[in-house]
């Protein structure tokens, strides 16, 4: 079944095995951004085997039935291609960027890598060492550690609360049989989308997908629904640091919620730029921080609105007090008309500027399909912002920023007591 979208000629074809092919031809682009995405992320890892999806992402590049890792790398670079992959909590993406006149051989190579991994024991043992170094690097980085602590504070011991790469112990316990079982059970066409943007031929991509990727498999792993832990602060004390790295969050809503447009604008107004409330107050007016921002993290079934900042450990109490004052002022005064227009324009601009990149366009198409089962094009997104009202953003302020505490993840020389009080709403 094939369909054309009115949004800049986005084409969609659903194959008999369940795989979906998406393409968007951009006449002015002479390269291709291709992604093969699976609706399988770290939240789908088997119990006691966190890091499985991420390890599979690594291992597909270590060899297939016909190509070893060196041959894969040589083949890619022979055609001028850059291949890569990432895993997050919702999905795994294998992708590449390459010249349009090399799209057939590179697409075939990426399809082979994804569809026929070997999981050779010797390669697995080497790659587990690489992943262990990746885990140690993240653990030692205060930014990454604070984010992981925040998600653990929010979701506890559930899959969403675990690091994407797993832990040193969990990765050490993953065997070739574990990878093979998980891959064969779930990496089928029912949870896969192949997406290409740029100098593409949709029919050519459909033909390749039908022969190489459209294979039987379960639609998706059985997921544990998101569940929030009691509100709390998780603080890792590192006496050698002078700065405190703090992540705060409040529950929001799922990726598919229509209020996501209002949330994006609220995020921009709160901490999304240099004119935002938090940047102006905490950095420009009070000189309490070098870095401060807000963020959103939307999953398939829930979401977060968060704040991140780094401050001198001696300023932490004052920083939290000023932050509370600014949030109270926002709750009291809501979003002003001029502030709404500025944040709306900045948010729309961010969307448009990101789409100058074919890779960003490809990833956006794939993500909306995986999360919502349909394409959300640029025109539909911009229309969503055009319909947005200031009152819709103010309503979210009331809903998401009530003064009853935050989830907290932090790393620094101290501050556990004051952050625990802040988490409980006792600022």
Shape: globular
Q: DSSP helix count?
A: 16
CATH architecture of the largest domain: 2-Layer Sandwich
The CATH superfamily of the largest domain is known as: Metalloenzyme, LuxS/M16 peptidase-like
Strand adjacency order, main sheet: 1-2-3-7-4-6-5
Structural class: alpha+beta
Which parts are unreliable, with pLDDT below 50 for 5 consecutive residues or more? Answer: none
- Annotated CATH topology of the largest domain: Cytochrome Bc1 Complex, Chain A, domain 1
Mean pLDDT, all residues: 95
Task: Give the biggest sheet.
Answer: 7 strands, mixed
Number of strands: 12
Can you describe this structure?
It is a single chain. This protein has 427 residues and is α+β, with helices and mostly antiparallel strands. The chain has two domains: 2-212, Cytochrome Bc1 Complex, Chain A, domain 1 (2-Layer Sandwich); 233-423, Metalloenzyme, LuxS/M16 peptidase-like (Cytochrome Bc1 Complex, Chain A, domain 1), CATH 3.30.830.10. The chain is 45% helix and 19% strand. It has 16 helices and twelve strands. The protein has helices at 52-59, 69-78, 103-115, 121-140, 142-155, 168-172, 176-186, 202-212, 260-271, 277-285, 316-333, 337-354, 358-372, 378-386, 390-400, 416-423; strands at 2-4, 10-14, 20-25, 31-38, 82-87, 92-99, 192-198, 233-237, 243-251, 289-298, 303-312, 407-412. The protein has a seven-stranded mixed sheet, sandwiched between helices. A five-stranded mixed sheet has the order 8-12-9-11-10. β1 (2-4) and β2 form a beta hairpin. α1 crosses α7 (176-186), α3 (103-115) runs parallel beside α8 (202-212) and α9 packs across α12 (337-354). The longest helix has 20 residues, at 121-140. The mean pLDDT is 95.
